[in-house]
Input
Amino acid sequence: MSTLTVLLEEIPQLVKPFHPQLTRTFVKSASDPGGSSIRSRAAAGLGALMKHQPRVDPVVTELVGGVRAADNDIAPSIVLALAAVCKSAGKNIGEGVRGGVVELVEEAFMGGRNGQFLLIWYGWWLMK
Output
């Protein structure tokens, strides 16, 4: 994961042909039950990848659905990936999909099942 992220940051034009495969890899790894370090590296990689994508709506929609479907151990990692995508490619997110992200954050404020992910989202924005 780390090596792929470095490649995306250093030579994005050479990795561009592999964006669809990398997107699948990073999204799947963001919800990997194997460990939080894999999930956090996948989140960073997905953020780096989405900087160079004009269409991010399908990925954001999938991540929002993943947060809602995931258990309490994995949902915060998917939120971290969602925050990375929103931070790096926020200008490319359509209004409808952006509304879904806002709705997810509002649910966290209302004390939904995954209230802890709001802290991760906030922490991500403070770190960058």
Remarks:
- Residues 16 and 52 are 8 Å apart (CA to CA).
- The chain has a mean pLDDT of 85.
- The chain has one domain: 2-127.
